[in-house]
Structure formats: C-alpha cells, structure tokens
Design brief:
With 362 residues, the protein is mainly α. The protein has two domains: 145 residues, no CATH class; 134 residues, no CATH class. Helices cover 83% and strands 0% of the residues. The protein is elongated, with a radius of gyration of 27 Å. Belongs to the autoinducer-2 exporter (AI-2E) (TC 2.A.86) family. It is a multi-pass membrane protein. Keywords: Cell membrane, Membrane, Transmembrane, Transmembrane helix, Transport.
C-alpha cells in the first residue's frame, strides 16, 4: 500500500469502518427491540440488583441470575398466562360457535330490547335469525372466518412478543453481569459527544427511563393485576384475559374504565346487581386510583410525557416493534421529550447568563 497516498489510505480506512458498522447494524437489527428493552429493564432495576448483589456476598453471576429470574416472574410470566388464556378462549369461542351453528341461536334476552335507540331493532333482527335458522347460519358463517383469522393473528403477535420478551430477559443477565463496564463505556462515549453537559444529560435520561418504567409500565401492571383480581372475585369468566386487556389499555387515556365498566354492565345485564356494583366500586377506588394517584407521583421525577405523545408512543411502538413496543414506544418518546426540554432550558439559561448586548443574549 506504499504507492497510495495518505489521504487515500484514510478514505479507505473510513470506508472499511463504515462497512463494518453497517454489517454490525444489519446483524443486530432483528434484535434491536430486545436489546433496547433489556437495557431499559436493567437500568430501571439496577438498585435492586445492587441490593441483591450485596445479599449474596458480591457474587455478580449469582446476583444476575437471581435478578433475571425475578424479571422473568414479573415481566414474562403474566404475558405467558395471557397467551395461554387467549388460546383457551379461542378454542372455547370456536366450540361455542360450532354448537350454535348446530342447534341454532337462542332467543334474544330481555335486556337487548331495553338498549337505547337500537334496542328494539336489534331484538327484532335477533328474533328473525332465531326463527330462520338457515339465514342465521349464513350470517354466522360470514363472521366465523374473519373472527378466527383475527384470533389467530392476535395469538401470533402475542406469541412473537412473548419470545422477544424472553430474549430480552436473557440479555438482561449479561447486562447485569457486566453493567459497570457498560456504564463506563456509555459515560465515556457521552463525554466525547456532549462534553461537559454529558453528566447532566445522562442524569436526565436515567430519571426519565426510571420514571417511565415505574410510572407507566409499573402502574399499568398493577392495574391489570388488580382488575383481574376484582373480576375473579366477582366470578367473571376469563378474568385473567380481561386483566391483561386492562394492562394493555392502561397506556391509553381512560383505557381501564372501558374494561371494568363493560364488565359491570355485563354483570348487571345478567341480573348480578350486587357484583356489578362491586366491580364499579373496585374499579373506581382501586384500579383507577392507581392511575390518578400513584402514576403522577412516580412520574413527578421526570418530565411528564404529554398525553398525545404518550398515545403516539403506545401506537407507534406497537406498529414499529410489535407487542414489545408497548414498553419501548412510550419510553423512547419520553427520553426524547426530556432531552428536548433539557436542551431548551439550557439554551434559555445561557441567554439569561450572557452579558447584555452580546449575541447570545439576543
């Protein structure tokens, strides 16, 4: 290579590094969401890991294994139960639809007629189908295919998300095990990029990640568990599935009330007035209290993500990363929003401290 000039050698070296970086990005791209979630979980639970490490006498591998088991129990196990429950519910729905196709539909219950606006028309249409079995079979057959396809697609998405969660938890073991070295690399890289502002920016990112995980994901998990417990006490079928639905909808504005209000109305329609009132009281004083009291308290440590950005983070994360994006979407947007606010406040502070008449004070 002596016949090449130094600029050409530098250009070739840069090109080689870019190709290497591109190759690494292509290799790691399928695991990007799992890596990001593992980093978020590891950082958010790092104080617990340090306490666990202290208890086991400083043995990092054992502490990392114990923390990985704890994260599996808290994060993966509920979704594994949800996938199994969804599969069982799908089989039950298919069996019920098959039985109705064979025996014909039952007559409409009295509460259908009492529905506002469309109650009488819906009851009449239901009654006509009940009397005309062939027409009912045709109508139900039209819906059976799309319903089964939707159920299978939902199960596939949940199954893939469960695999990604399992992979993320597996990666967290190594993040716990080598967390101090990784943190040192991150601090050094941030120092080179951001200079003196690096410690402040890393602090903002850390507080935002912890606030988002505890304030959004933690409270959502608590709401789902409490809702499932209340539904189970009230004797509602598929309480675990409804609790999982409460967890998912808790990322949306007024999401959980949609679940427990619907369950309460179903109980009232079944004649279980007492249990319907119980579900309403349980939802108001326990499930919704977490959203109205605990979540703002936990989010107070970081810049509260605006409602619109929270909704976009939920939907965009779901579209970009699949089921695992429920966790990543709000977290990534919260970090970006906090960094933007920090940058804006730093610029304003520099203007206030600049001498009068200087360009920075303008």
């Amino acid at each position: 290579m002596m016949f090449l000039g130094k600029p050409i050698e530098q250009t070739l070296g840069i090109a080689a590094l870019l190709l290497l970086a591109l190759g690494c990005a292509v290799v790691l791209w399928p695991f990007l969401s799992a890596l990001l979630l593992a980093a978020v979980v590891c950082y958010s639970t790092w104080p617990i890991y340090l306490e666990c490490e202290r208890v086991v006498g400083g043995r990092r591998a054992l502490a990392a294994a114990l923390m990985t088991g704890l994260v599996t129990l808290v994060l993966v196990a509920p979704f594994a139960v949800m996938v199994v429950t969804l599969a069982e519910s799908t089989r039950g729905l298919v069996a019920g639809a098959t039985r109705i196709l064979a025996e014909g539909p039952p007559p409409p219950p009295p509460w259908v007629t009492g529905l506002p606006i469309l109650g009488e028309r819906l009851a009449a249409y239901w009654g006509s189908l009940a009397l005309n079995a062939p027409a009912f079979v045709i109508e139900l057959t039209k819906l059976r295919g799309p319903a089964i396809s939707a159920a299978v697609a939902s199960g596939a998405v949940l199954g893939l998300g469960l695999l990604e969660l399992g992979l993320s938890v597996f990666i967290t073991f190594f993040f716990y095990r080598h967390g101090r070295i990784l943190a040192a690399y991150v601090r050094q890289s941030a120092q080179r990029v951001a200079g003196e502002r690096a410690p402040r920016l890393l602090l903002v990112v850390g507080e935002t990640v912890q606030g988002t995980v505890y304030g959004l994901i933690g409270t959502a998990l608590a709401q789902g568990l409490l809702a499932a417990l209340g539904f189970w006490i009230a004797g509602v079928p598929q309480a675990l599935l409804l609790g999982s639905l409460t967890f998912v909808l808790s990322f949306l504005p007024v999401g959980p009330p949609l679940v427990w209000i619907s369950v309460a109305l179903w109980l009232l329609a079944q004649g279980a007035i007492g249990w319907g009132i119980f579900v309403v009281l349980w939802g108001v004083f326990l499930v919704s209290t977490i959203d109205n009291v605990l979540r703002p308290y936990l989010l107070a440590r970081s810049n509260s993500l605006p409602l619109l950005l929270g909704l976009l983070g939920f939907l965009g994360g779901l579209l970009a990363f699949g089921f695992i994006g429920i966790f990543l979407g709000p977290t990534l947007l919260a970090v970006a929003y906090s960094l933007f606010v920090e940058w804006h406040e730093a610029e304003a502070e520099e203007r206030r401290q600049a001498p009068p008449g200087s360009p920075d004070s303008q």
